[in-house]
Design a protein that fits this description.
- The protein is α+β, with helices and mostly antiparallel strands.
- Among the domains are: 31-122, Phosphorylase Kinase, domain 1 (2-Layer Sandwich); 123-197 and 213-324, Transferase(Phosphotransferase) domain 1 (Transferase(Phosphotransferase), domain 1, Orthogonal Bundle), CATH 1.10.510.10; 455-546, Alpha Horseshoe (Serine Threonine Protein Phosphatase 5, Tetratricopeptide repeat).
- It has 16 helices and 14 strands.
- A hairpin with a 2-residue loop joins strand 13 and strand 14 (375-380).
Length: 547
């Protein structure tokens, strides 16, 4: 190509003229597929992406007038048997998945010119990488909503024997539907591994020790080229969670080898340390670090378990938000002085209403409109503001009068008691004589045991057993509702009233879930001391050995 400035031949690929250094502007090459109808079924409209294996086009299904995505394998790769088999495997892996959060395969065929293509559903949205770049920081509730759908799709894929192996934000599409904000589609199973018990997978498409995937999201076992199972995908989800909460990757490097080495050898810094200003709940931080464990056995063991823990953390966070100071009654809570949006819940106060103090909030409620993600509920209170204010003033006046009368009566009584002619205590108080021992109540003060509960002497009071059982039932309900901190407090109070070995067992498990290994060990050892024949002994010993 000739330079437009000096006329020198700049060659076919150079971006700058070798003679004068001016930038060379090259016209975009025409794409042979745009405008064509492939196999009489798909009219190609535009190219929306390009990768090492081929190009991705937006097309329209002619018969249904429906948008689709066509992924077309490069002509130059048709002679590479391994690449062709990998492309076919992507179609096979994705076709196995019927989950609403997994991309759907429409067709797999060969074009008139011999090129292989996959037709799949078109998702009108942004990928998670774009959302991170433009919208971070993201509220924790939104992160939970997005990642729980990713895990739901992975659960279905893993049950079908499909491991993704290249999960990253670019492969997660997020679509805004009318009644479903942040609807997720997981795509690109191009390097997916299919585990098939029938053994019909065919020859291996990756060489032994060969590493494939994206280095920033690779699990340690994937980085070292070891055999993989579904827990490798869960590690990648942990990296994505870390990135969504902090806007940063857990490790930084300038090379693929550097990323792989850090995934293999370094522990990720806690998210709250990387971004102290980010709003990350303690439960979310614990789960992220658990998912990023080097040993697959220390991670959540299934996508379903991971999703359940994620949702429980979100419920616990919401419950903690509801227990914030200022909300004192579940029946009639005072309206906060300052109203701010909380995740997907927005509260708007009528601008005509005046601000109220916290003590008056339950009396004066003019017009409040609460809009939730799923709809709107309007509560209006306009009845008798002046009447309510007058009633409150009268109540305050009566209260002040009663207090004044009470103080006066108390003063008159004390005066008569100490200084009246029949005052029985006048002599005693005038002399400094001690009160006789017979007049003192017999009170025995027990020394306070400051040792932790699991170290104290075991003393059972059968009278306290019913109260302890009631507390334990409350704790069980709290666990089912994901309120682990409440459960912990109830179990400890139950054990303090009646040291039952089952309470010690559950306390050990809760502290283990919180990664407080020292206290978990102490409670489990107390359980085994109280119940040597415990059926949980093997489980406890396995956990204690791994600590």
């Amino acid at each position: 190509m000739l330079c437009s400035t000096c006329g020198t031949d700049a060659g076919d690929v150079s971006k700058f003229c070798p003679s004068c250094g001016a930038p060379v502007v090259r016209a975009a090459e025409a794409d042979d597929y745009i405008g064509r109808v492939i196999k009489g079924k798909y009219r190609v409209e535009d190219m929306i992406g390009e990768g090492g294996m081929g190009k991705v086009y937006k097309a329209r299904q002619v018969m249904l007038d429906k948008p689709v995505v066509l992924k077309v394998l490069r002509q130059s790769l048709l002679s590479d048997e391994r690449t062709v088999q990998r492309f076919q495997r992507e179609a096979k892996a994705a076709s196995r998945l019927q989950h609403p959060n997994s991309i759907s395969i429409v067709d797999f065929d060969q074009a008139e010119d011999g090129a292989l293509y996959i037709a799949m559903e078109y998702v009108q949205g942004k990928d998670l990488h774009q959302i991170l770049s433009r919208e971070w920081p993201l509220p924790e509730a939104r992160v939970v909503r997005i990642v729980s759908q990713v895990l739901s799709a992975l659960a279905e894929a893993h049950s079908a024997g499909v491991i993704h192996r290249d999960l990253k934000p670019e492969n997660i599409m997020v679509e805004q539907r009318r009644n479903e904000p942040d609807f997720v589609k997981v795509l690109d199973f191009g390097i997916a591994k299919i585990q098939d018990a029938t053994g019909d997978e065919g020859p291996a498409l990756t060489r032994a020790g060969f590493v494939c995937g994206t280095p920033e999201y690779m699990s340690p076992e994937q980085a070292r080229g070891a055999p993989l199972d579904h827990r490798s995908d869960l590690y990648a989800v942990g990296v994505i969670l870390y990135q969504l909460m902090t806007g940063l990757l857990p490790f930084e490097s300038d090379s693929a080898v550097g990323f792989a080495t850090k995934h293999l050898t370094e522990e990720p810094p806690p998210p709250s340390r990387r971004r102290p200003e980010a709003k990350i709940s303690p439960g979310m931080e614990r789960l992220i670090l658990k998912a990023l464990s080097k040993d697959p056995n220390d991670r959540p063991q299934t996508a379903e378990q991971f999703r359940a823990e994620l949702i429980a953390i979100d419920k616990e966070r919401r419950s903690a938000a509801q227990r914030r100071p200022g909300i004192s009654s579940p029946v009639l809570s005072p309206i906060p002085r300052k109203v701010t949006p909380a995740d997907q819940l927005e509260t708007r106060v009528d601008p005509r209403a005046n601000p109220w103090s916290a003590s008056e909030a339950t009396v004066r409620q003019d017009a409040v409109v609460i809009t939730a993600a799923g709809g709107a509920a309007t509560a209006t209170h306009t009845d008798g503001v002046e009447a309510a204010s007058a009633g409150l003033l009268a109540f305050k006046i009566v209260t002040v009068l009663l207090v004044a009368i009470s103080v006066g009566l108390a003063g008159w009584y004390l005066y008569g008691l100490y200084f009246g002619e029949n005052a029985p205590l006048a002599d005693t108080l005038s002399s400094n004589a001690p009160v006789p021992r017979e007049s003192q109540d017999p009170v025995t003060i027990q020394p306070t045991d400051t040792r932790p509960l699991y170290e104290r002497e075991i003393v059972r009071n059968e009278a306290m057993h019913p109260k302890a059982e009631a507390l334990a039932r409350d704790a069980d309900r709290a666990v089912r509702n994901g309120k682990l901190d409440i459960a912990l407090a109830h179990y400890q109070e139950a054990y303090e009233k009646y040291p039952d070995p089952e309470y010690a067992l559950k306390l050990g498990e809760l502290y283990y879930q919180r990664n407080d290994m020292k206290i978990a060990r102490a409670w489990w050892e107390r359980h085994l001391a109280l119940k040597p024949e415990s059926k949980a002994r093997a489980y406890i010993q396995e956990r204690l050995t791994s600590m």
